[in-house]
Amino acid sequence: MEEFIVEKMKENKIPGISYGVIDGEKVEMRGIGFRNVEKALPATERTLYGIASVTKSFTALAIMKLVEEGKLDLKAEVESILGIELKPFGEPVRIHHLLTHSSGIPSLGYAEAFIDGFFGSRESWLPVAKPQDLVPFIKDMEGWAVARPGKRFFYSNTGYVLLGLIIEKVSGVKYEDFVREKILEPLKMERTDFRPKDEDFATGYILQEGKLVPKPFPYGITSDGGLISCVEDLVKYLRMYITLEGPVSEEYLKLMEKEYIEVPWQMFGGEAYGYGLVIYPTFYGKRLVGHSGSLGSYTSFIGYIRDEELGVVVLENSSGYAPSLIGMYILAEKLGEDPYKIEGIRREEILKRFEGTYYGFKRTIKFVVKRRGDFLFLEGEWGSVPLVPEVVEEDYVKAFTLSGGRKMYAEFFLKDGKAEMLYERYRLVREP
C-alpha cells in the first residue's frame, strides 16, 4: 500500500500525503513527505489540508440537520427562500436539485475563475470574499439552463454556495457557525475549521514547468469547498457514516446515500450522486460511498464501505495524482482484491509500459512516446502528437490521433519483453 503511494508521489512530484484507514475497530493514520518543502516540515496525520469539495458533504449534512429539526423541506423552492429567480423552463429549482447537482443549469465556472484569479494563473478575476458577493454574478443564471430540474447532472459549485446561503437564512446564523455547532463540535473534530487552527497547515503547491510552486489557500466562499481538516478528524467524520451514529439521525444519513441521479463519469458502472456524496454501487461487489475534492493546490478523498466497516481518507497538498485512486487502491487491498483492476490504475500501468524511445529501420527515424495522464504523446523533431487510447489491453494498446480530419492509428505491442509500435507507414522498436 505505502509502496504504491510513494511510487505515485515520486512519479507525480507530490510534496506530501496524509492518509487514514478505518478497518473495523482499528485505525491506521500516517503522513508521508512534506507539508512544507521549503522548510522541510514533515506531513503527519494531524497536518491540516484544504479538503475542497469534500466540504459539500458537510453542507449536505447541515441541510439534513435543518430538515430533521423541521425547519426546512427538501422540496422547498430555492426562489421562495432566497428570492433569486430560479425557474428554468418554467419549473422551480428545489433544495433537492441543488443537493444533487440536478438543477439543469451547467456550471457557471465561478470557482474556476475565482481560484485561477487567486493564483494569478490567468487574467480573469472574480472577487468573491463571501457568498453574498456571488449573488450579482448569478442573477440571470436560470437563462444558462439546458435541462429541466431533475433531468440532468451538472456538477455545480454555485449550487452549494446557494445551499450555504439557505442554511444561513433558515437557521439565522452564519453557515460556518452552524457547521461548527451542529457538526464539528458534536463529532469532536477539534482542529477542523474554515481557517487553520495552528501552524501544522500544509502549504499547497501546483506544478509549473516541472517545479513545485507554493500557492496561498483561496479563502472566500466556504460552503462548496472551504473547510480545512486533517486525517485525524476526518476519521471521526467517516466513523459517523459507518456506524450511523452522530449529530444527524440514521434516517437522514441514509437519505444522503440514496442514488438520486447518475453521474456522467463512470468507472465501475452505476455511479450516482446522493446528497453531497457519490455512490459507487459496484466497487468489487460492494457499495462504496464517498467524495473527492480539488482546489488545484489541495486534493482530497473520503470513502467508506459500511458493510465491511472500512473507510479511507487521503489528503494531498498538490494535484499530482488523484487521491480517489489512492483511496480505492487501499480499500481494494483491504478487501483482498486486486487494486490493478480499478480502471484508472489499470490503464495507467499499461500505458506506462509503452513509454520510451522508438527507432525505425536501422535507426532512420526516431519517436519518443510519453504518457501524460490518460493520454500518450508521440514526440519528434516536428513536434508533439496526442494519442487517444481506444483499446488498452495487457500487451496491446491501440490509440488514435487526427491529421487533416483523418483518424490515424498507433498500435503498440509487447513481444518477448520488447515494445514495438506501428504508426502510419512505420514500424518502430523501443530500445532499452
Automatic annotation (TrEMBL):
Transmembrane segments: none
Lineage of source species: Archaea, Methanobacteriati, Methanobacteriota, Thermococci, Thermococcales
Keyword Flavoprotein: no
InterPro entries noted in UniProt: AmpC-like (IPR050491), Beta-lactam-related (IPR001466), Beta-lactam/transpept-like (IPR012338), Pab87_oct (IPR025879), Pab87_oct_sf (IPR038164)
Pfam families: Beta-lactamase (PF00144), Pab87_oct (PF13969)
Keywords tagged on the record: Hydrolase
Record domain Pab87 octamerisation: where: 341-429
The protein, known as: Serine hydrolase
Statement: the UniProt record of this protein carries the keyword Hydrolase: yes
Domain Beta-lactamase-related residues, every copy: 2-324
Entry's Gene Ontology molecular function annotations: hydrolase activity
